[in-house]
């Protein structure tokens, strides 16, 4: 009997002729669909052997389509970020400006990455971007690498290998993933010397830890957490003075790359350079609003030394990010922060957001309400603080919030939102206004269609 049932399993051709799979073939090509279909048919054969019933042709086609969708789900997919977290680490941090995207497109083919058009000779990678960083920041020299973690590894290994670097205990942070200051020191071959306590470190702590084995002082901005209450850290300028007295450099990891101005407690590069640090390091894809990159600025002799280190070659920036970084720096130089999506989002006031939120909420009638709330800067910037916003708070009943969120994640494009107390919470700060309507349509379709399969 099971042999008969097995014989009833549709042939590959028949399955592939199912309209759902014809569509999949159009999207993904025949080999992908055939591979998935072969596996599904094989499982059906095994199931029947175990005494299960033969699935219908529709069931089989749906299983194949789902297997292919799962493949798609693992790939990079552009999403609507309705969380209000501006620098969302899991969603690629800074969205790029139109100019940066165009620059990437331009650089993607053959481009003058290491070619000097004037002389026809080999050029140096990143010459223009280094000049732009210097012009923008007033720093004497600059180097741009793959990310800030790489920049720190390079600086530690290049300037302090086999020697000691002094850091305050309150600054031994974990940025995320495997990036912890003590581990990076170890990876760089540097001996970490911790001074002070978690909440209080004094200049004298640094002073008494300096020996002839000391290569450097390091100051790390504890970007993603905050110590409050009975705290003390010596001012940067007095640490700079101490380092100078002993003829050793001071490295400042400022994290989020706020160039100047003021934003909560965020350190600015301008203040850091004014205090006289020898080297400062920051990320390209946080408050700078550019692509993933790590930027080192400071003393020309040290920057040159680092640029010649073998690790510099291993962590160099690729041509696409180089192109996007040039475009981003140009926007800063022209004073056109509004060109950068990060800054457009950061500058929105509740008054800017409210009319958009009202239009969105109106789609849901009594199931939605507006309320005041806060958007998060993210990327380790401004911990414990937020930007006032107007949130759209939607009751997903009769479906649960978990089902609603799952449906939003499988929409095209996927929508990532927040939930709070069983409700779906949308913060339009991180949604480009031109996507408001599309977002409304997706939310309506996903939340209202109660027979919509998830
Ligand atoms: C984010 C951050 C880093 C790591 O930067 P990446 O560019 O992600 O490598 C290092 N230090 C501080 C203080 C940070 O905030």
From TrEMBL:
InterPro entries from the UniProt entry: PyrdxlP-dep_Trfase, PyrdxlP-dep_Trfase_major, SelA-like, SelA_trans, SelA_trans_N_dom
Gene3D superfamilies: 3.90.1150.180, Type I PLP-dependent aspartate aminotransferase-like (Major domain)
GO BP of this protein: conversion of seryl-tRNAsec to selenocys-tRNAsec; selenocysteine incorporation
Primary location: cytoplasm
Every L-seryl-tRNA selenium transferase N-terminal domain range: 6-45
Keywords, comma-separated and alphabetical: Cytoplasm, Protein biosynthesis, Pyridoxal phosphate, Selenium, Transferase
Any matching Pfam family: SelA
Function per UniProt: Converts seryl-tRNA(Sec) to selenocysteinyl-tRNA(Sec) required for selenoprotein biosynthesis.
Similarity comment: family membership: Belongs to the SelA family.
Protein name: L-seryl-tRNA(Sec) selenium transferase
Organism: Nonomuraea polychroma
């Amino acid at each position: 009997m099971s042999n008969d049932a097995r014989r009833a399993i549709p042939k590959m051709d028949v399955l592939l002729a199912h309209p759902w799979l014809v569509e999949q073939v159009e999207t993904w090509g025949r080999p992908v669909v055939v591979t998935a279909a072969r596996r599904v048919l094989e499982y059906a054969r095994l199931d029947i052997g175990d005494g299960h019933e033969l699935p219908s042709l529709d069931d089989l086609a749906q299983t194949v389509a789902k297997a292919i969708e799962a493949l798609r789900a693992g790939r990079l997919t552009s999403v609507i970020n309705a969380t209000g977290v501006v620098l969302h680490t899991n969603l690629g941090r800074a969205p790029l400006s139109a100019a940066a995207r165009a620059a990437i497109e331009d650089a993607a083919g053959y481009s003058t990455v290491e070619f000097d058009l004037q002389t026809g000779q080999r050029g140096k990678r990143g010459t223009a971007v280094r000049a732009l960083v210097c012009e923008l920041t007033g720093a004497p020299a600059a180097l741009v690498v793959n990310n800030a973690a790489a920049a720190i590894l390079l600086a530690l290994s290049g300037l302090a290998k086999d020697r000691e670097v002094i850091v305050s205990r309150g600054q031994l942070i974990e940025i995320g993933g495997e990036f912890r200051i003590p581990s990076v020191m170890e990876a760089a071959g540097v001996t970490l010397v911790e001074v002070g306590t978690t909440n209080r470190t004094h200049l004298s702590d640094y002073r008494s830890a300096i020996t002839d084995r000391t290569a450097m002082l390091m100051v790390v901005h504890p970007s993603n957490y905050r110590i409050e209450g009975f705290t003390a850290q010596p001012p940067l300028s007095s640490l700079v003075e101490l380092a100078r007295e002993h003829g050793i450099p001071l490295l400042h990891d400022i994290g989020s790359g706020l160039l100047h101005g003021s934003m909560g407690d965020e350190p600015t590069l301008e203040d850091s350079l004014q205090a006289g640090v020898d080297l400062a390091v920051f990320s390209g894809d946080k408050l700078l609003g550019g692509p993933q990159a790590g930027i080192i600025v400071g003393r020309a002799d040290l920057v040159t030394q680092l640029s010649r280190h073998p690790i510099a070659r291993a962590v160099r920036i690729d041509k696409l990010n180089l192109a996007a970084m040039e475009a981003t720096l140009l926007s800063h130089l022209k004073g056109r922060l509004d060109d950068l999506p990060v800054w457009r989002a950061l500058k929105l006031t509740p008054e800017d957001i409210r009319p958009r939120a009202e239009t969105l909420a109106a789609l849901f009638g009594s199931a939605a309400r507006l309320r005041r709330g806060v958007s998060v800067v993210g990327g380790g910037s401004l911990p414990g603080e937020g930007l006032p916003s107007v949130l759209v708070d939607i009751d997903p009943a009769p479906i649960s919030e978990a089902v609603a969120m799952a449906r939003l994640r499988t929409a095209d494009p996927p929508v990532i939102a927040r939930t709070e107390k069983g409700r779906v919470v949308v913060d339009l700060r991180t949604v480009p206004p031109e996507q408001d309507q599309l977002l409304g349509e997706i939310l309506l379709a996903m939340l209202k269609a109660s027979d919509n399969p998830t």
